[in-house]
Amino acid sequence: MQTMTQIADNKAALEKKIEVAAHEAGRDPESVRLVAVSKVQPDERIETALATGQRLFGENRVQEALERWSVRRETCPDLRLHLIGPLQTNKVKEAVALFDCIETVDRPKLAAALAQEMERQGRGLPCFIQVNTGEEEQKSGVTPAGLPDLLRACREEYGIDIRGLMCIPPQDEPPAMHFALLAKLAARHDLPDLSMGMSHDFETAVRLGATFVRVGTAFFGSRVS
Ligand SMILES: *Cc1c(COP(=O)(O)O)cnc(C)c1O
């Protein structure tokens, strides 16, 4: 079981490592935000995280996020939730209502559905485009070659506020080249935010420009209870 001190210690250690990595790269540590990935974690750990002052969380499934956060949304007004998993168009309505940022826009059909729903709810969310930097068959995300067209469509046809890019590197490759590629693509398209880096590689991501790191197990402890 993760006690209060364990999660508070994890959080402090992560923040320290982020600070060191940012300094190494000549970056302001304040420009990096820690997204605590709360998927599958038991409720007591969520409460503990909130008690430590953590307010920014990431979830990869809409239904699970609704169960975990819809009540807490009401009681915790400064909560910020990022969707970091694939989004089906039939879940767009719930996603727009619950989340503060959608990090996984990856196709025109989804962009169109999001734009329509944001208009309907009067809730224009900042979004990221997920890039499949490893061009893996099974992974979601637009290919690097497909990014310019999708970005143009999001901006010009759908009027979506695209703030940055997100990636999940292939598991069996060193992540640095994927982070560097994502940073290069973001710079080329004038996108300020980069969501990259997880428990095992967030320091590398920070050195290469991450503005959001998505950390699950190193924050909360193992997801298998
Ligand atoms: C689960 C998940 C994470 C966090 O993974 P950890 O290895 O536990 O830090 C980050 N990003 C995405 C998209 C995830 O699904």
Quickly list its features.
225 residues; 44% helix; binds pyridoxal-5'-phosphate; TIM Barrel
Gist of the model:
By secondary structure, the protein is of the alpha/beta class. It contains 9 helices and 8 strands.
Please describe the topology of this protein.
Layout: H1 4-24, E1 33-37, H2 43-51, E2 56-59, H3 62-75, E3 80-83, H4 92-98, E4 101-105, H5 108-121, E5 127-130, H6 147-157, E6 162-166, H7 176-188, E7 193-195, H8 202-207, E8 212-215, H9 217-220
Parallel strand pairs: 1-2, 1-8, 2-3, 3-4, 4-5, 5-6, 6-7
Helix pairs in contact: 4-5
Pyridoxal-5'-phosphate binds next to strand 8 and helix 9.
Plain-language structure description:
The protein has 225 residues and is α/β, with parallel strands linked by helices. It has a single domain (4-220), classed as Alanine racemase (TIM Barrel), CATH 3.20.20. 44% of the residues lie in helices and 15% in strands. It is built from nine helices and eight strands. The chain has helices at 4-24, 43-51, 62-75, 92-98, 108-121, 147-157, 176-188, 202-207, 217-220, and strands at 33-37, 56-59, 80-83, 101-105, 127-130, 162-166, 193-195, 212-215. The chain has an eight-stranded parallel beta sheet. α4 crosses α5. It is globular. The protein starts with a helix and ends in a 5-residue tail after the last helix. The model has no long low-confidence stretch (mean pLDDT 96). Bound molecules: pyridoxal-5'-phosphate (PLP).
